[in-house]
């Protein structure tokens, strides 16, 4: 049984998908690495050419995505990091114990400063192991030249494809929203809906970030991508409100044919979004299709039939009002997609993008100082990396290991900020290295010589960088022959050398596992109370912003408060996920955190429904007062969390909810009286008010229940060891 479970875990680990393959990226990076080698071999300068190829390899590892201006800025920083730390490694070359002291410091800083990354430590380590006679400054310039060559290749499409990153981001957002709509009408568990909804909002956020990296001049054509992103967001907001309304409507099961027509209508909206995504990708050359009017008309007819039946059977008009609300929401979603189509048909032309090459890298010294003062989890992990790298360097130096740098490199690249992630990375690295090294040694044994070396490096680079984002095990399998042969280009890879490297990789993995398991705790457990309090406060501010909108403040910062609330939830979720990957996770606490984040999502869903209502003229009754009371409760609960004070009483708003029910009942009676004079189909102000109030009643009752669950979140757990 244990063996079967272990085998299943290994199978899942090696087969899990981490991303999409990138064949163009693989081909370009392979060319960037192999061209310097070929030039060196043809001119008889193989040694210097290896350094240029290494510089290209380093920059390829750090190659960013996004708009080409942002890529240029990041590549500029990467080339500078490669040059400076190659010089630093060269300066301590020939002084092994000085290197044991210097490299761990570099590794610690690089773990805390994202713009340095593992590239800085890798450059330093490989510069340290070169012959002491190697010219330090010249080596740095050679690697800089290789890095600049790789940068030029990666930025070559800038002129002709400058809008491609933005187009791809917009298309991904449209596809993600369509994917969420596919499951929106489905009753039952919300798991798949929650997953797709989160993915859609994240895609919209990424599109907004990508658009923000372009330089706009304020012209109408340059504002079109922003308006397109907003229509995608609005479509998702309407979808969230529709899902909540359907939940209330299904309390009394609607006829089967009504559900079928609803699915068809939503599917037509999703299909138009997918056509739109395709049109964005191909610059609008693909037909965008019709407006889906037939599906909407059939859905309208089906809802009208059900409404007429319910009017005859029910003593109140609440169900029929909710049914009308559903129909209005579907029509608005279709209208948002139509506006998106019109924007795309007019074109997404854009001004030339200019990068800020001198912009300060993210993760500066101020943040570094703050992490040190607070002993943040990032700081703890960075110090853990430094200690583990120091141990590996000391072992390699003290034992005079021929390939001791592979021990250090394995520790550096395997140690993650959680024990579970470290285990997965070590397993993938050891397995991939073993397979890759054996393949390389076998190929060289069958066909020795520089031609085979270059061919193996080229093939390894193509497949390695293509599948690097898919699974780390694939990267290690294909990338290992490339790295082994590139770093030790002048030393043939015999079976003994391959065995040493596999053995040192295994030993480095054990050191990384020991460091992740035995060194001090990550400190994430102590973050839970503060992050949970931030979650409550951010949602309290969002509730107050919605209350202000109901009070007539059209400038209430609902968007900003929503983004703050999502960020607080993401931070708490990330902390709990990482805590769950530790050797002995507090399962009870993690369960309560998951309940809190789920309640927070439902609170935002309820508020999205209310925001949609607040954009119209609505007779809200006591809704504003209820929202203020909910916000006060969340704030009080947050204060109790951080101060360990007695938590506030349960959220009970019985009188206000009864007042809201009375308000709705009054609208119901007035509408029935009105119907006797104007007919049941007359669209009057009173009917609109009843529809809006019915939607508000369900959303408010759901909000009070969900806010109560959110406010009851508890962080108490056994102390961290």
Automatic annotation (TrEMBL):
<feature type="transmembrane region" description="Helical">
    <location>
        <begin position="385"/>
        <end position="406"/>
    </location>
</feature>
<feature type="transmembrane region" description="Helical">
    <location>
        <begin position="24"/>
        <end position="43"/>
    </location>
</feature>
<keyword id="KW-0812">Transmembrane</keyword>
<feature type="transmembrane region" description="Helical">
    <location>
        <begin position="99"/>
        <end position="129"/>
    </location>
</feature>
<feature type="domain" description="Integral membrane bound transporter">
    <location>
        <begin position="392"/>
        <end position="514"/>
    </location>
</feature>
<keyword id="KW-1003">Cell membrane</keyword>
<feature type="transmembrane region" description="Helical">
    <location>
        <begin position="494"/>
        <end position="516"/>
    </location>
</feature>
<keyword id="KW-1133">Transmembrane helix</keyword>
<feature type="region of interest" description="Disordered">
    <location>
        <begin position="565"/>
        <end position="588"/>
    </location>
</feature>
<feature type="transmembrane region" description="Helical">
    <location>
        <begin position="50"/>
        <end position="68"/>
    </location>
</feature>
<feature type="transmembrane region" description="Helical">
    <location>
        <begin position="426"/>
        <end position="446"/>
    </location>
</feature>
<dbReference type="Pfam" id="PF13515">
    <property type="entry name" value="FUSC_2"/>
</dbReference>
<comment type="similarity">
    <text>Belongs to the YccS/YhfK family.</text>
</comment>
<keyword id="KW-0472">Membrane</keyword>
<protein>
    <submittedName>
        <fullName>FUSC family protein</fullName>
    </submittedName>
</protein>
<dbReference type="InterPro" id="IPR049453">
    <property type="entry name" value="Memb_transporter_dom"/>
</dbReference>
<feature type="transmembrane region" description="Helical">
    <location>
        <begin position="74"/>
        <end position="92"/>
    </location>
</feature>
<feature type="transmembrane region" description="Helical">
    <location>
        <begin position="141"/>
        <end position="160"/>
    </location>
</feature>
